[in-house]
Write a structure and sequence with these properties.
heterotrimer; A mainly beta; B alpha+beta; C alpha+beta; A: mainly beta; 1 helix; B: Rieske Iron-sulfur Protein; Naphthalene 1,2-dioxygenase Alpha Subunit, Chain A, domain 1; 2 domains; nine-stranded antiparallel β-sheet; 15 helices; 22 strands; 23% strand; Rng_hydr_dOase-bsu (chain C); EC 1.14.12.3 (chain C); benzene 1,2-dioxygenase activity (chain C); oxidoreductase (chain C); NTF2-like_dom_sf (chain C)
Chain lengths: 112, 448, 179
């Protein structure tokens, strides 16, 4: 488990999503849904798109490219053309800092 | 800016224009309503160059609100941007050319092509594709393949115009002093105007010019063509225009507005006394806003065409575009315009009144259609097409000494506006560039 | 899109026959330009409505799907409006009616139900209107109608008519008839 710093809570407005670049694990999208913070992979599972460029509608993130949707708390793919769920990360808030807890996948390490 | 459309190479002008159109002599020939080669020149030298009406701002309230329409035969999307501006794009995917927006209006995040899933945001940027990895592997440059944006978009009092031609004059210069007259309908009350919801479209087998010319300055037809409708709606004949003490035909750059100063002649034919009363009620405030002269125009016996194909009738409040669909076919798009500040029941009466009079079921329009179709169809005859048609009324009626802006002619029973319309048409077809279009305006640019 | 408001009971065979006869007669009166007699079949509180059809995406519907009561229409008429239209047909100066337009109105797919209001029936049908003018003009309009008929002392009358055509662009220049 790796603790990845995302951003300051005070800099993430309500119903805002931010993209945090991360070369090691892939970019991470961090969301503030009515005070509750979530983190998911930022790359859409359908085609190349940064979900942080999309709109939040209720608890869904709408991909800006083909308008497929993912449920932010669970990462579930919910709207055509998205079929593969999004990776989600547990978050930890320490004072004002938001961290994602990224489980380092053994397979991915093996692949190098 | 790489997504700006390519402009057309200019083709040679037709060599027979002088034979089909001589406005100094007051004649045209039916050929201009039926010839395929003339029509092709019109698409290039008129519709791909002039400012064309594409929308009313009230149709595009929020970010992502769009309508689709055509500029000439080119399909376009008109969409409200995040910054409040309006962009106009070709409604064709830059990949294989498929239409990217199939609906006539709505609110959207962008446009996704049904063919290969190319996706564009409302600013026209290509934001992705289905199987995007394939494009990335080919080092495809997304920034060059957005929706093709028209050269210029501008508005006047809620009316949105666009042009494909970066060399065209500004909208202000193009409309010139006609804006002073447009205000009589489009800016007579605080808050301006809005369109009633919806758009009624119909198909005429006529040339676009015969319809546009009818609105540019042909009130002459009304007393005869529309006798039946006037009797049905009013129980009597159409107002005898020759009895009006004061009336005018005004034109500029081929646009034309003909009008009397009887305040309510046009609205009266809707047969709703409440609408007449509304006009009389607002008239004093219009006089304060626009002056006495134009307060007499707000629903008077009048009509207007902004060159080439945008027309309206103050009073009936029908607004329309004669969309060209070949030399002998148009699609007519119509809307109803109302003052934003008007009470709801007044807006509703205009919605129905325009339908009862000027729509495919309208008792007035019914008798126009057949006339326009047969003005076009007779020119199918090779011999008939070559015969002169008379357009010479009111040759010596130009008013040198007037406070009014524009090229002002005495009387609205006058073919001065029709001649100016066909003259501008001739000038554009003859010109390879805008600088070759002669300036034939001889009136004032501004009101005195 | 119009949908039936409740599960309604079908009318009896006798009433079905009567309703069919009413609609067939109505069509024939129009074909024979017997407009005054046609107006006699219309209730004084008629709402005769043919909305404009708008080509919208499913996720952007109007109040009634692809039409809206506040939007532009072909007909949105009271009895006075229908009378005015008939008055134009009757003028000797109705140039586009002379020579006459020759009409055939067909009515099909008839269904009739007992409506919730007393003495009224909900009647659904499809129609085809074929018009010819001049030597070679032919215009065909087809669509679906949702009628409310009411039984009065002087027989059945048309109280409401909703006319829906499939076309977002009318393929002809006018509708110089009733549908």
């Amino acid at each position: 488990m790796e603790k990845v710093y995302l951003c300051k809570f005070s800099e993430l407005a309500e119903n805002q999503v931010k993209k945090i670049e991360n070369k090691a694990h892939g970019d991470i999208a961090v969301y503030n849904l009515g005070g509750q913070v979530y983190a998911t992979a930022d790359l859409c599972t359908h085609a190349t798109a940064s979900l942080a460029d999309g709109d939040i509608e209720d608890d869904m993130i709408v991909c800006p490219v083909h308008w497929g949707q993912f449920h932010i708390p669970t990462g579930k793919a919910q709207g055509f053309p998205c079929e593969i769920d999004l990776r989600t990360y547990p978050v930890e808030i320490d004072d004002d800092a938001i961290y994602a807890l990224v489980e380092v996948d053994a397979n991915m390490i093996a692949k190098g | 800016m790489s997504n700006i459309i390519k402009t057309l190479d200019v083709t040679e002008r037709l060599d027979n224009l002088k034979q089909v159109c001589d406005l100094d002599e007051g004649r045209i020939a039916g050929e201009i309503f039926y010839s395929q080669s003339i029509y092709e020149q019109e698409l290039e030298k008129i519709f791909a160059r002039c400012w064309l009406f594409v929308a009313h701002e009230s149709q595009l309230v929020k970010t992502g609100d769009y309508i689709t329409t055509t500029m000439g035969e080119d399909e376009v999307i008109v969409v409200r941007q995040k910054d409040g501006s309006i962009k106009v794009f070709l409604n064709a995917c830059p990949h294989r050319g498929n239409k990217v927006c199939f609906s006539e209006s709505g609110t959207t995040r962008g446009f996704i092509c049904n063919y290969h899933g190319w996706s564009f945001d409302t600013a026209g940027n290509l934001v992705g594709q289905h199987e995007s990895g394939i494009y990335e592997a080919s080092e495809f440059d997304k920034s060059k393949w957005g929706l093709r944006e028209v050269a210029k978009v501008d508005t006047y009092k809620g009316l949105v115009f666009a042009t494909f031609d970066p060399e065209s004059p500004s909208l202000q210069e193009y409309l010139g002093p006609m804006t002073w007259y447009l205000d009589a309908l489009f800016d007579n009350q605080e808050g301006g105007t809005e369109f009633v919801g919806g758009c009624i479209r119909s198909t005429y087998e006529c040339n676009w010019k015969i319809a546009a010319e009818n609105f540019v300055g042909d009130i002459l037809h009304a007393g005869w063509t529309h006798d039946s409708a006037a009797r049905a709606m009013l129980g009597g004949a159409v107002a005898k225009v020759s009895d009006f003490e004061e009336s005018y035909s005004v034109n500029w750059n081929g646009h034309g507005y003909e009008f009397a100063l009887d305040t309510v002649g046009n609205v009266a034919v809707l047969g709703e006394s409440k609408l007449n009363r509304y006009i009389h009620t607002i008239k004093p405030s219009v006089a304060e806003r626009l002056g006495d002269f134009r307060s007499n125009m707000i629903a008077s016996v009048s009509s207007c065409t902004i060159f080439p194909n945008f027309s309206f009738l103050p009073g009936q409040n029908t607004v329309r575009v004669w969309q060209p669909r070949g030399p002998n076919k148009i699609e007519l798009f119509t809307w109803v315009v109302v003052n934003k500040s008007a009470p709801d029941d007044i807006k509703e009466m205009w919605r129905k009144g325009a339908m009862m009079t000027f729509s495919p079921t309208g008792v007035f329009e019914m008798d126009d259609g057949e006339n326009w179709e047969y003005c076009t169809k007779t020119a199918k005859g090779r011999v008939t097409a070559k015969q002169d048609l008379y357009v010479g009324l009111g040759m010596d009626t130009f008013m040198e000494d007037t406070h009014l802006p524009g090229n002002v002619y005495q009387g609205q029973l006058n073919e001065a506006n029709s001649r100016a319309f066909y003259q501008y048409w001739y000038d554009l077809l003859s010109a390879h560039t805008w600088s070759e279009v002669p300036n034939r305006n001889k009136g004032k640019v501004e009101a005195e | 899109m119009f949908t039936q408001s409740a599960a309604l009971e079908s009318v009896s065979q006798d009433v079905f026959f009567e309703v069919a006869a009413f609609l067939n007669k109505e069509a024939r009166l129009l074909d024979e330009e017997r407009f005054e007699e046609w107006l006699g079949l219309i209730h004084e509180d008629i709402h005769y409505w043919m909305p404009g059809i708008e080509n919208r995406r499913r996720e952007n519907p109007l109040k009634q799907g692809f039409y809206d009561k506040d939007h532009m229409a072909y007909f949105d008429d009271s009895l006075r409006d229908l009378q005015r239209r008939v008055a134009r047909f009757r003028q000797p100066s109705a140039w586009a009616e002379n020579p006459a337009t020759r009409n055939v109105h067909q009515v099909n797919n008839l269904e009739a139900f007992i409506a919730q209001e007393p003495n009224t029936y909900e009647v659904y049908s499809t129609f085809t209107s074929i018009r010819s003018r001049g030597l070679d003009e032919e215009y065909v309009i087809y669509g679906r109608r949702y009628d409310t008929l009411i039984r009065t002392e002087s027989g059945l009358k048309l109280l409401k008519r909703l006319i829906l055509i499939p076309n977002a662009t009318l393929s002809c220049k006018n509708i110089n008839t009733f549908l």
